[in-house]
Here is the input.
Amino acid sequence: MRIASLKGRAAIVDGDVAHDLAVVSGGEFGADPSDLYGRWDALREWAAAAELGGGTPYKEADLGCPVPRPPQVFALAVNYQDHAAEASIEAPEHPLVFTKFPTSISGPFAPIELSTNRADWEVELVVVLGRPAWQVPVEEAWDHVAGLTVGQDISERRMQFRKPFPHLSVAKSLPGFGPIGPVVVTADELDDPDALHLSCSVNGELMQDGSTADLIFGVAALIAEISAAVKMLPGDLIFTGTPAGTGSTRDPRRYLEPGDVVESRIEGIGTIRNECVEAKR
Ligand code: ZN
Here is the structure.
């Protein structure tokens, strides 16, 4: 199943057609995409039995953020070996978790508003939770996942590395610094949800090219480790970390400028496309 927000309404997407969820479910499920994740088991059960007819063709540009109001947003620093190496950081023994504040989350084709000349790209697999998770054993962790989506963990590097100590959450939470989408895809739609090719290009130039098979802590391990400490909620997001190829680790360093177009792609899920614009005050 592929869940989207189409013109702000929850929809099931199937190829180039979409079904308005509130309409096809006869009101069993509402129009607000945020409400689905708290009823994910009921939605899966209903969808398994539903006979969806023809559907309606839709425009990609009408797709909005599929999880517009995540209760909590977890994110991972240094979760790919090759990114650890390029940043000259030792691979961690436990996941390095920070938060992106939920107001930074935006849609798959939303602009990235630049109020800084130090914004950098980070393509990431994003996990969406479909059940509460609290002290979940690793072998049960995937049962708590609603689906997977594509994300960009846009990062303000000057703020991030301000002395005396690197701090991530604010530097990665500027408005529009967390575009996700275009859809939330259930794991059963993917050949191997633990080995997905992901890439990022800027103005058509390939910058990042990796596989989630190279995550230091994979999806199940992350849910087990985070839920060992924090109560996780349906609709929560986990930005799982980024592979090598970010702008601040290149020589010469490269940062985003107005007019740049960032395309982020994950095999089996789709592509998000975000144009950089000068921030409005
Ligand atoms: Zn990141």
Notes: Residues 75, 122, 124, 153, 239, 241-242 surround zinc ion (CB under 6 Å). The first strand starts at residue 2 and ends at 6.
